[in-house]
Structure formats: C-alpha cells, structure tokens
Amino acid sequence: MNRARKFGWPAGVGSACTILVLALSFGLTGCTVWGAKNPPTVKSMTGAQDHEHVFWSQVKARHWRKVTAMLATNVVYSAGGKILSRDQIVPYLQAENVRDYILTGTQVKPSGPDMTLTYHLQISSPGGPTRSFTAISVWQQVGGGWILILHTEQPAAS
Questions:
Q1: How is domain 48-155 classified at the CATH fold level?
Q2: Using one digit for the tens of pLDDT, what is the confidence trace for 54-89?
Q3: Extended strands (E) in the chain
C-alpha cells in the first residue's frame, strides 16, 4: 500500500516531503562542509585584485614591513599631487591613518609579466570624511611573487 494513502495524504505528497527533507538536510550540511573563506594572504593570492586587497589590508593593519616588502625598489607612487619615492610611501600612508578601505569597479588588464588594475578606492580615516579616488596600480611578477611598481590615485569626480 502506498504510504500517502496509508496516512490519508493525496498521491505524490509523500515523495515531495521526502525530497524536501533531503534538500534541507543537504542545505544545512553544506554550511559546515567547507570552512569559512579566509582573506587572501601573499602566499595564497591568485589574482591581481588579491594583491591590491592584501596591500590595502596591510596598510589598514599598519603592517609597514609587509607593505614595504610589496614595493619594488623603483616604485612610482603618485598621491596627493606628489610623486613619492619608495622611502616616502610608508610615511605618507602612516599619515593617511587608514581606518578602512573599499575597492570597487576593479578591472584587470594583463600585459606579459605585469598586471594593470584600475579601480575606485574609498578610504576612511578617524575623524575625517570618507575620500574617494580613481586609482591605477601596476603589479609585476618577479620570481614567484608580485611587487607593486606603480600606483597613482586621483580624487574621484563628484
């Protein structure tokens, strides 16, 4: 005898309930099968956008040695209407006192061993308004890693 008829349910309800229970079971276990996605690190980066996120997360965390390690010796960094040398970049970023950042609209254009990123950058600092920039960064592959060789940011048009 059909289980649906046994309980007085219309035909097909028993199998529909079984499918629903299975779907919910798989949905709930899917949340625990894979661990939480961790933010990218220098060793786990796969895309150009990851490099930029790690750079800004190191700035936000004030890990200045790690920031410096991501810079080419001949890096060109243009910000605040100035061209900064490698030795001037960290003091400039320290003075910016970045509390948080947001990267949006990222476009990646590979070119041989280089990756050019264009994106919108929002930086917030304690006690100040959020500032928006249009930015370009160029990352170059060196050995097994990547270094920043150029960064420029201009205030975004309102």
A1: Nuclear Transport Factor 2; Chain: A, (3.10.450)
A2: 999 999 999 999 999 999 999 999 998 999 999 999
A3: 71-79, 82-84, 100-111, 114-124, 131-142, 145-155
